Amino acid sequence: MRCTIVLEFDNGDGSVVKRVEVMRLHRPIEDQTPGDVGLSLSEGKSLLNCVQQEFVVEQIERFFASRRSCVDCGVQRRLHDNHCSEMKTALGKVYYCRERWKACNCGADGARYVSPLKNYLTEASTGELRWLHVELGATMPYRQAKAVMDLLLPTSGRDNHVTIRNHTVAIGKSIQHARPVRRWCETEKPIAELGIDVGYVRRARCNRKGSGKENRAEAGNRSSSIAVVVAALGQAGKQPRVWASAMPRTRRLNQEMTRFLEDSGYGDPNEVVVLTDGAWDLAGVANDLPYDNEWILDWAHIGRMLRRVEQAIAPLAYGRLTDSGSAFELWDLFVRFRHYVWVGRIAAWQQFEARLAHLLDLRETRDPAVSSQVRKASYSLSNVVTYLDSNAESLIDYRTWQCAGGRISTGFVESSINRIVGRRMCKSQHMRWSRVGAHSVVQLRVALLNQEFHELARRQFPWIGQRRVTWPWQRTSQPF
Fold first, then answer.
1. pTM over 0.85
2. Could you tell me the residue ranges of all domains in the chain?
3. Over the range 289-309, which residues count as b (16 or more CB within 10 Å of their CB) and which as e?
4. What would be the CATH architecture of the domain defined by 191-298+409-460?
5. What confidence category does residue 222 fall into, taking pLDDT thresholds of 50, 70 and 90?
6. Which pLDDT score is estimated for 321?
7. What is the per-residue pLDDT across 70-92, written as a single tens digit (0 to 9) for each?
């Protein structure tokens, strides 16, 4: 069996203007093997590359023909020179003729020569290929992204993982200040729940040339990791909108976070509720916002610390330590202490903490055999009390706040850090990043997570993702 694939170009009126034979496929009947049905992947890639080559050549020739005549006098411009050029597309590398014409004698061109493709083909690669590089480079390592493209698409020539990295950094810089196409929240809320946390990636080594003393001094002044500030905003039970930055914490960072709140539909709220784990270095990020800030200490961190105290006290729970106490006096006191922390009664849990510490001392005095377990429980209790005392202003009635539908944990921010930073930049991948490279990748992963990446791509190249065909793109040779 032989199949000939032919391209026919017309002007839209049904008359064939040009007919090009693209490829011939051969399937000898006598050499049929089980499962050998249809086109193979290599044949499909060759076919796509051939169709792309003929389509680009015909499209550029018609572009030349439509602009060869002078707009003022209508005279055909004379050819000055031409040369063969190449362009990288998502369907392989193609070659075309790049012409330069002599200017018309009427003086309408304003220059000696006219290059018609100067403003039409401004890059050596198409925008679709660059955005494809960026989407793959933001979701997987650059070398792996190159291997996936080589496996599924026709090769683009001399592209390698460095090309994908350069495109990723360039487009990451261009979209970091792009405004969203749609508002995340249609109605403005009086209170915005903003969760802030930090993820870390390893910094790349200094490769700048210079004396060893200078490099050691620079390495000493630079941290071994880059802090990525991640903020998530949204109502409880819904997918939050995410913002992230790997840039230093300057006034510009606060301006970008303010714009993030406005773009998310929370313009000029009366109050911003900030959920944090008690890291006061994050306080400067949100305190400079032009809103009234209320800090809420993350209950998940408090709960984990209380859990360690519970595990240490559980083996010591049985036993009467005072004359008026019950058989589980130590455990009952801890349960009441935990309850008062949950409802935000600071004076009450401070009082019960002192009584709890006194009972632990009594237990160690009466039973020296469990002194090591008592010291472990006392240490865990002192840790949680110190943590609560240093963040007493951020403690609230968590029970009432949760019943009102508010968030009490930064889990939605930590999951966003895992999806933005962890899966791509540090976990199970021994990578080092420059600050610019990390910031660009973070911006792209945020756009993908917020489902805004393809909208931003179509804003720059409206034809990306469109099927400009007349016939249905899915059809069979015979109806079934």
1. no
2. 2-124, 128-175, 191-298+409-460, 300-394
3. bebeeebbbbbebbbebbebb
4. 2-Layer Sandwich (3.30)
5. low
6. 76
7. 888 889 999 999 999 999 999 99
